[in-house]
Amino acid sequence: MKTEEKDNYLKETLEVYINRTFAKTSVPGGGSVVACVSSLSSALIGMVLNYTLGKERYIVYEKELKYIFVENEIILKKLSAYIERDSEIYANIRKYTSSKDAITATKYLKESAALHLDICRAALKIIEFAEILAEKGNQALISDTGISSALAVSVFISAKINLLINLKYITGDKEFITNSLQEIERIEKKVMEKGKAVTCKVLKKLEIKDG
Questions:
Q1: Is this model's pTM higher than 0.90 or not?
Q2: Could you tell me what percent of the chain has a pLDDT over 70?
Q3: How does pLDDT run across 143-192, given as a tens digit for each residue?
Q4: Phi, psi dihedral angles at 131 (to 5 degrees)
Q5: CA–CA separation, 113 vs 111, rounded Å?
Q6: Side-chain half-sphere of 204: how many Cα atoms within 13 Å?
Q7: Are 86 and 115 contacting, i.e. CB atoms less than 8 angstroms apart?
Q8: How many C-beta neighbours within 10 Å does residue 153 have?
Q9: Which stretches in the chain have pLDDT values below 70?
Q10: 7 three-state secondary structure
Q11: How far lies 166's CA from each of 27, 120, 159, in Å?
Q12: What are the structural domains of the chain?
């Protein structure tokens, strides 16, 4: 069962987290789940890199892939922290909305919006990593590369939904809303184009040829 006390999802079993999500309480909810899936998408990039770095066949790409490895590790750490942080923010949104403290509630709505916009940015980075790994990563793990990208596209769409629900209730800061909408539009174009390209590339490599 879920509780409303401070959460520590990362130290729980996956079964407990799933059951807490299923239960009839407010957290973890969609926002935390999006952060969780984004972390798994990034983790798959890390797995592909771990099976690529040091391999003689891919040594020509070593420098570039090591850079991606470090950058992806930073992203993964941040996304993993968001799994718990989203629930903490949402608890505060509920608390201050209930107490009719609009100023403080808006502060947390903006923090939640910013968190999900950042997940959208991370989703694009993960897709870009997958785009590179589809060509330069260990080809024995091409399906994992493709799944990472597909998850990241889903993460973007889901995080955008969470961004929009927060923006809907923010008052008194039109500039924040406008800037957020403009950025998400720019990111979305790249996510959809690159995500489709990665999927097509991976599926092409996985084609079963007759004979």
A1: yes
A2: 96
A3: 999 999 999 999 999 999 999 999 999 988 999 999 999 999 999 999 99
A4: -60, -40
A5: 5
A6: 8
A7: yes
A8: 22
A9: 1-6, 211
A10: coil
A11: 16, 14, 11
A12: 18-205 (1.20.120.680)
